[in-house]
Amino acid sequence: MNKIVEKVYFSDYVVKLVVEAPHIARSRKAGHFVIVRIGQKGERIPLTIAEADLEKGTITLVIQKVGVSSIKLSNLEVGDKITDLVGPLGNPTHIEKVGTVLACGGGVGVAPLLPIVEAFKNAGNKVISILAARQKELIILEEEVRKHSDELIIMTDDGSYGKKGLITDGMEEVIKREKIDRCITVGPAIMMKYVSLLTQKYKIPTEASLNTLMVDGTGMCGACRVTVGGKTKFVCVDGPEFDAAEIDFDEMLFRLNSYKKEEENSYQRFLKKYQKA
Amino acid sequence: MDRLQEYLKKERAQEWRAELRGTLKAKDRTNMERLSMPEEDPAVRSTNYVEVNTGLSEEQAIHEARRCIDCPDPTCITGCPVGINIPKFIKKIETGDFLDAAVVLKETNALPAVCGRVCPQEVQCEQACFYTQKLGKPPVAIGNLERFAADYEQNSGKLSIPVIADRNGIKVASIGSGPSGLAFAGDMVKMGYDVTVYEALHEIGGVLKYGIPEFRLPNEIVDVEIDILKKMGVKFITNFIVGKTASIKDLEGEGFASFFIGSGAGLPSFMNIPGENYIGIYSSNEYLTRVNLMNAADPDYDTPVISGKKVAVIGGGNTAMDSVRTAKRLGAERAMIIYRRSIEEMPARVEEIKHAKEEGIEFMNLNNPLEYFADENGRVCRMKLQKMELGEPDDSGRRRPMPIKGSEYEIEVDTVVVSVGVSPNPLIPQSLPDLNISSWGTIKVNKENMQSSIPNLFAGGDIVRGGATVILAMGDGRAAAASMDKYIKQKIRAILPLVKEFKSIGEILEFAGK
Q1: What is the ipTM of this complex?
Q2: Staple partner for A129: which of A149, B115, B269, B324, CB 3.0–4.6 Å?
């Protein structure tokens, strides 16, 4: 179990791993996530499930190298095992036929967005997907998302691919053009904040899938708490998706930086060790 | 109950026990002083993680064992949630047969080295001891003796494996590997069942691992007891969340006949006051899990923890004591308990409060948090408190804390640990819509037999009680094991007469499939 059977580099920073996890492959639904731990001294981090293959009993994880744990995970090769892998966690996305769905993904947020796009499409919706990133190399899963979308729009900050501009620029064009019944967004917290502000302006019901810090991921520690509609909610058991207009994104942005100093120190220690080896 | 009395009487009448009683007059026994548990120096221990209580020596244990007068009516046993034959194990210590004493413990208790450390004996067996009840003297130190016998066995390297009945091949599962699940597993495997324990985390032991700190219960001690269960044949599967990874129905399909749910406490409670989500404010569950389970205080480990110089822990229970004493060990200059009632009303064990005081913990009783403030990075830097006074008794019988108007003031803090309780883990109830749940989120069971509204599901520990002790959870696990055994055997008896009417094994299997 937990053996890596395939590894693909999307870019220098983003890696796709296909991992043996037959139980999770069978039980997972769009919106679910897993918790992984790498090595006996590793930390527990949440990762969303991009795809699952029932026949092969595998799930697909997409990892962006941002700190010690994600680098350790990205450094694993085919045949290696992930020390601990548990899931599927969280509540599945509420899928129904609503009409036209605007799916907005940023960075590696596109990985968890993929099964959501697929599920909304299969439920009979028209799905317009917008993928955004800083530059061309960071756009991932383009073909997979296109397969399940009626229309695909690519936005890059520097204009190196698709249209130049922010995700909200692309969204506004679509919103002005046609009626959108629901918006789904997954990506960096700051991006989701602005997606939410835009859809509030046009009164489009919007769900945001949050990726906060977690320890156990099973509703025990409360590290993942966010304020939604003035109440404290736990992303792991109440989420990960919430009504975007109700989310206190500013508080979430602060909390995501809880360990900035510790993470930097840990990264420097890791680099030293790594260079020695 | 009568059969138990009869059994105890017979045991007590055994020659060695009678002889032993004759070696020292009861009056001389009761004139002996209770020995206190030796402890590490507070100044040293508050800077490291060594266990605070160091354990009795052999001589001390024998001395303490001699105080027990081996009553004809051993009331102490009625105070033990797992029904240990207390006089028998103590008399085995008195005769120096320490390994035999451990065997007696393990007849009814899967985790004696754990219980000897974390049970609140002062409100259980020791409260029911003849010394407390009739003499008004300090009771026999039953807890310290239990720990002594269990540790002696662990250190001897001659671990006894309890006797196991013939395997019956019937598969049962525990959902959760905390104290209730381990007690359940120990009893079921002894009765011959094929037991699997599922655990959501990567470590076995539940709260014994993530919650209780090393200085009170070293993980090594827990692992030895888990190893014995493994040797008895219990299978453990980590990283598996029943209700998520696979459903109860899936597991029934794999042949499991019945389940014990011991999924424990879940969601930490917060006070819902302004600023409670600032950086540096933890639930006690998170703070302790980071330090105990994830080793966050060791820079070799990847998990970080914020623990500053001015740490406020909100609450008055054992978990609050564990958190504040952990903060001290992580280098806090001020480690404070903030509790809205007086020290007498604190739910923590007297021993924990005493240890905390010795280690320099500040007790700010009759104070209640109102609000937190943060610096420009969102990190907590101050808190507003209000002074309280005690009013009339409330539902719990304790005097109700009343705010004193105009008494608000502020103190500087850089870390806060909120330890004001938990609500049950929601994962199992979420996955079983037909299960009867209380408005608190606890699983409703028949208190006689721990059976839930779904006949083949039994439950115990914090998922039923909301928040209790290790030993009460273990008592539930044992009670559930006994009634699950009865339940399964009744089912089998109902089918047996039919078996004769079948002409082939194939017919039986076909019938069983229905």
Answers
A1: 0.93
A2: A149
